[in-house]
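tool_call predict_complex ligand=xanthosine-5'-monophosphate
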Amino acid sequence: MNTPSNQLVLVLDFGGQYKELIARRVRECRVASELKPGRTPLDEIKKLAPIGIILTGGPDSVYKEGAPLADLALFELGIPILGICYGMHLMAHTLGGQVSPCPVSEYGRITTEIDESSPIFAGLDGSQICLMSHTDQVSRLPEGFKASAHTDNCAIAAMENRARRLYATQFHPEVENTPNGTDIIRNFLYNVCGAAGDYDIGGYRARMLSEIRERVGDRRVLLGLSGGVDSSVCAALLAEAVPGRLHCIFVDHGLMRQNEGDEVEAAFRGRELHFIRVDAEERFLKKLKGVRDPERKRKIIGEEFVRVFEDEAKKLGDVDFLAQGTIYPDVVESGANGSAVIKSHHNVGGLPDDIAFRGIIEPLRGLFKDEVRELGRELGLPRALTERQPFPGPGLAVRIIGAVTKKKLETLRAADAVFREEISRLRVKPDMYFAVLTDTRSVGVMGDFRTYGYTVALRAVKTTDFMTCEYVPLPHKLLGRVSGRIINEAAGVSRVVYDVTGKPPATIEWE
Ligand code: XMP
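tool_result ok
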């Protein structure tokens, strides 16, 4: 049964870039996981009573000043621990072993010889491909430990103390570049921690419901609802957690696709929430008038969105919590790992400080997109909503090249609706597909008359992470049909072209 008391594995974060992936792999193995800071006090850890702890990798050198360290008592709790990369160094350093710089650093997929008798390597062949990425390594084992894997350049690529149920790997079992890595994590969970496999997305739902209820009590929550998968799932979860005390503000900026505003409203009818739809089309179009630069469009829309939101929040009066549908990839793409910002998307922390809230609630922050969709289905949201492809916050404004006008919006809406309708008949659909209204006009002929209309570009891409993509070679017959229908059904279009560029070098959206 899924209750908030599912067995839990705690992932202690020492700054590694794959930390969420570790938590996700644990969930894939049907065990609940939670990511907490590396410095989480022991009392808190004991209170959570995890069946196992995983120490993540991290950028530091354990022997340098200022590196995050672990408490010796952590390893004396009797809870099984798996240290990964920096987590391994931490284990060795704390327990009296030695960590030193590698004579030869290892990066990439490295052949690793493992001790097949180790409980964490059960069922695996003796030679494995593992992702290594390190400049330090364990050079002397702590007392009671033995090496359980090695590579050509790393004598201690894994270590263990079976009696104390302490295990560690220099390589990263959580990434796809370690093809059997999930088996290693599963072995740790089931062979070492005694996992029962009692977690599924229903368990996550139950846990979140109880956490939100405890935090919110009888106070009120405000959520900005865009109608996208993430904020919709967030709304459904909160409506169940605090029925009647959730206010959702849906800002219809007039840059939505055909019928979209009504569809979003309909999906939330009948749920225990206060749905406020703000028709702000005029406000947005006024601010966007004559603006051609994509980044300025984004900035204007982002800012105006906040202003509308503020106006509505003020009308509501005392609201204690602000909820956001932030998911894990948002946190990464917004430069959280020092990565470059290509487009100013994503509203991570993007709301003004001067709306006074007691706290922010982000119940999806640790989840990946497919997990969010699964949770949405579990909460009974219609598939049309949970399976929605991402739609950019600035909406059709970044799919109209150049200045945005009401007329152009109408044209694009009609063209996009045709394309989406035709694609909806395909058995296998591209991951993202949409129409763009370019700023290029060209000469055409309709009946006996010359036309001089806009060019519509169609885009359909295959992607899993939306950070890279390939174009989809749609059948010419389909493209021909779409082209014919668009010319007939979208006023002012005289030519249709198909975009055959990947990302990189292009991006998915045209602006
Ligand atoms: P790009 O165009 O950057 O798109 O290759 C990658 C994914 O991000 C979406 N996207 C945005 N989402 N605000 C958003 O909320 C934005 O300004 C924005 N720009 C792009 C895009 O639709 C795709 O899914």
